[in-house]
Design goal:
By secondary structure, this protein is mainly alpha-helical. The protein has a single domain, classed as Farnesyl Diphosphate Synthase (Orthogonal Bundle). The chain has 17 helices and two strands. Strands 1-2 form a two-stranded antiparallel sheet. Helix 4 packs across helix 9 (about 170-195), helix 10 packs antiparallel against helix 16 (about 295-310) and helix 10 runs parallel beside helix 17. The protein starts with 12 loop residues before the first helix and ends with a helix.
Amino acid sequence: MAETARKQNDPHPLERLGTLLDSDMRAVNAIILGKMQSPVEIIPQLAGHLIAAGGKRIRPLLTLACTRLYGYEGDRPYRLAASVEFIHTATLLHDDVVDDSGERRGRPSANAVFGNLSSILVGDFLFSRAFQLMVDDGSLEVLRILSDASAIIAQGEVMQMMTTGNIKTTFEDYEEVVKAKTAALFAAACEIGPIIAGEDTEAASAMCEYGMNLGIAFQIADDVLDYSAQREKLGKTIGDDFREGKVTAPVLIALSEADDNERAFWARVLAGEEAQSESDLARAQAILAKHDACSKGMTLARTYADKALCALQAAPAGDLRNALADIAGFAVEREY
């Protein structure tokens, strides 16, 4: 079962993984900083604004870990880990435009500072940089995996747009959005590790399965946290998904047990037919508490974290495998 608590004095799981991969990650960061440069001044300014806001770098760390896990000692994963981070950063820029977000990681979002058009175009630039790095690597298999993931992420964005405000969304619809929008890049970031290391398809499939389930667990937990005071400790605003009308796991759980008044409430506040009032978020939280929706949502997230741990058992034992197991616990706990 996924770890449910972390001792107060234990290092953070990402810190442990970062320590194991410190020199590797410094090399990746150097590539990221170098490749975001451009003679068009707004490009490094805007990209630097988002990068300066921080971020866990979990996806490139996964690529590095899943490569070193199989004994590979060369520098080939550096470009590909940077490529994975550029894909992720590009999707964040596009996400904030689509969601009309004013903040990202506790700071004004890039679109709020530089405008929507600049954010979209710099996002496109970073996508292009990602593909340049993939081509530099020279592996058609790696190119296929990461380009497929990029296409799936874009589909996921469209799927989420179609489910926003729609209380007829099913759990199957929601999980498809999560798999496409978030988990696909986690899976790809992990899958390319054994390929870089020259391992067989069985190893790559196991790491893909680990990454997919880790990504699903991570996103479901994040959706639950949107309604939790814990979110403020992570530098995020409570109720972002609620205000954007997103139909996520805790809402779906509450809807499955809702009476007529509650269903009418969710239809009103999520569909955007009229402005939400200041008291609507508090009422939503009360309804979720009534149905224990957040706790049930975290239980669902843990089932995927457990699936990630099962897939990880096929990997070589050692410090890196232990660190990756800890990341599965982090994904569903997020206690800083």
